[in-house]
Amino acid sequence: MRPDPRKVIAGADVIVAGLFSAKRTDRSTVIADIEAEVCRLGGRVVASFVQRRGVSGGKKGSAPGGVAAMSEPYSSRTLMSAGKVHEIAEACARTNAAAVVFSNELTDRQRTVLTRICGRPVFGRDDLTRCVPDRPSRPVRDAHEGEPL
User: Residue 136: inside a domain, yes or no?
Assistant: First the structure.
């Protein structure tokens, strides 16, 4: 069972990360939106990481370069490159962050592997957008009216 992002993030230090195509020009805006969402949930962003895909040209031999694969994740297991994931994990340990939030949607496998590598819960943007404020389990009634508010 996945932890509730609201409970993990509230009052905690959080790291934000995102993988972007080199053609995407709104990286800063997307990261700022995720940071704002973390703050809305009561967290504090202590570090941000961006990895751009498709910056390099062709590789030696017949392997396609970054441009040919810029819309794909670096890894089906971790989304980002091993080096960038290592940097994020080190930042988690250094800052004692409670969670990592990616601007990308994550598969269950990616979420599981990244959580294990980082040593704390990892969430994707879609996990945060599903967060809705807690609602009472039954209607609240006004003592004088007796009708639901």
Answer: no
Q: What is the CATH number of the domain that holds 115?
A: 3.40.50.11060
Distance CA 123, CA 110 (A): 10
pLDDT tens track for 1-15: 789 999 999 999 999
Q: What pTM does this model have?
A: 0.76
Which residues, including other chains, have CB under 8 Å from residue 49's CB and lie 6 or more apart?
15, 16, 17, 18, 84, 87, 88, 91
CB atoms under 10 Å from CB of 80, counted, come to 24
**How many domains does the chain divide into?**
1
Give residue 106's domain range. 5-129
pLDDT digits (tens, 9 = 90+) for 35-93: 999 999 999 999 999 998 776 655 555 555 555 444 444 566 788 999 999 999 999 99
Residue 62 lies in a domain: yes
Domain contains 79: yes
SS3 144: coil
